[in-house]
Write a structure and sequence with these properties.
Elements lengths: L19 E6 L8 H15 L3 E8 L3 E5 L14 H26 L3 E4 L4 H13 L3 E5 L3 H8 L2 H21 L2 E4 L5 H6 L7 E3 L21 E5 L8 H14 L4 E5 L5 H11 L5 E5 L4 H7 L2 E4 L8 H8 L4 E4 L12 E3 L4 H13 L1 H18 L2 H17 L1
Parallel strand pairs: 1-2, 1-4, 4-5, 5-6, 6-7, 8-9, 8-11, 9-10, 11-12, 12-13
Antiparallel strand pairs: 2-3
Helix pairs in contact: 2-3, 3-5, 4-5, 7-8, 7-11, 10-12
Length: 395
């Protein structure tokens, strides 16, 4: 029933009285992190299409909050340490369930759409089971891939077991599992998810009509890492590679945008390598449009990844991408430069190649914008998602 959703885009809905939808994300912010940004953009697009979309999200001070995509976000402290995050997610499951259950009952929500198969998925599953409201889950990546990179020893084995049980529980409760990249399908099936429930629908990003980027004839002077500072994102690798790169390109600088449990370790590494003048860790930023306008390349050194929203944003802003082979959507030499995951020397070679080949940079920008317009258009993607909503209600 879902097999042709990848290619078929239904006609726009004519009714403006469409049912309420509850989006659930474990992200505390809707302006940082790929999952949080996608949830907010999805809510905004659903509102444009006539749906009543609300968002249930984690909050470090109130544990769980209900909001809308149009509401401004607030600056929140970032918890440091993986155990702190586990604690916060546990509280979110409890209080998020109570808040979400009340919302579904009061507003007669027609579809619940969770953005992971861990905390948000568990909250959505319990609400769905008790209220008989259809549940859709989008997997932006797979926690089974990342937990062993985050935790160590027996704790890693425990985290993997919890992630696997959570995935199977959520998959059983859900009407459909949306994957953002085809590479996730076989792994889900291997771990007990029924194949007929799985449908691939990518995330999306709006193409900028005009770039605010400075002249493209300039040299590559400013690189950026944008993302969560955690083990699976592997920000250490770019710092290690950059400490060698600046010996050949002393004018080059690196911005690290984001926060997370690895920030302290990363700061120590910067000091240890003596690159404080060349590498700046800026934390979370709200002025990302400005950041994209000044950087010359984005580096994604992840060891586990789904479809990173930051890659789509880079394409939208005409910023070339250098990424590890763990980022599955990229086509090396066409819309990005891809290096072997974890290979520092290969990363250095790709940075040097991008810095010295003007035509390559122009080609990567053109192809990135073309793919974004053709494959990740907001209107097309959200129509596919709402078609999944309709099928879930019909069945």
């Amino acid at each position: 029933m879902l097999a042709h959703l990848n290619t078929h885009v239904p006609k726009p809905q004519e009714s403006t009285d469409l049912p309420p939808v509850l989006l659930i994300t474990s992200n505390a912010s809707l302006y940082t992190g790929g999952e949080g940004i996608f949830t907010r953009q999805l809510a905004l697009q659903l509102d444009r299409d006539g749906y009543d979309a609300s968002i249930l999200r984690r909050d470090w001070r109130k544990l769980a909050v209900l909001t809308r995509g149009t509401e401004p976000d607030v600056e929140l402290p970032v918890p440091v340490g993986y155990l702190t995050i586990v604690r916060d997610l546990t509280f979110f499951i409890l209080f998020g369930f109570l808040l979400g259950f009340a919302r579904v009952q009061k507003r007669k929500v027609a579809v619940i759409h969770a953005q992971d198969a861990i905390s948000a998925g568990v909250v959505g599953s319990f609400i769905s089971i008790l209220t008989r409201t259809p549940l859709i889950i989008t997997l932006h990546g797979l926690h089974l891939r990342s937990v062993r990179g985050i935790f160590r020893g027996h704790l890693a084995n425990l985290a993997y077991a919890v992630a696997l049980v959570s995935l199977r529980f959520c998959a059983k409760a859900a009407k459909s599992i949306i994957i953002v990249d085809e590479s996730l399908r076989s792994e889900l099936v291997r771990n007990g998810v029924r194949p007929e429930k799985i449908v691939r629908i990518p995330t999306f990003c709006r193409l900028k009509t005009a770039s605010s980027h400075r002249s493209r004839a300039e040299k590559v002077k400013l690189l950026a890492f944008i993302g969560r500072l955690s083990a699976e994102k592997n920000p250490r690798l770019i710092v290690e590679a950059f400490s060698d790169i600046i010996k050949r390109f002393p004018e080059m600088r690196l911005l690290i945008i984001g926060d997370g449990p690895e920030r302290e370790n990363l700061s120590h590494l910067v000091r240890e390598r003596g690159v404080e003048k060349h590498v700046k860790i800026l934390g979370f930023r709200r002025d990302m449009e400005h950041i994209y306008s000044i950087i010359d390349a984005l580096v994604l050194p992840s060891v586990a990844e789904g479809l990173p929203q930051v890659a789509l944003e880079a394409w939208s802003n005409e910023v070339p991408i250098i990424a590890s082979s763990a980022v599955p959507i990229l086509r090396s030499g066409r819309d990005a430069l891809v290096f072997e995951t974890g290979n520092r020397l290969d990363l250095e070679r790709k940075i040097e190649l991008l810095a010295t080949d003007d035509e390559l940079r122009r080609r990567l920008r053109r192809e990135g914008q073309r793919r974004l317009a053709e494959e990740f258009d907001p209107e097309k993607v959200v129509k596919l998602i709402t078609r999944v909503y309709e099928i879930a209600q019909e069945t």
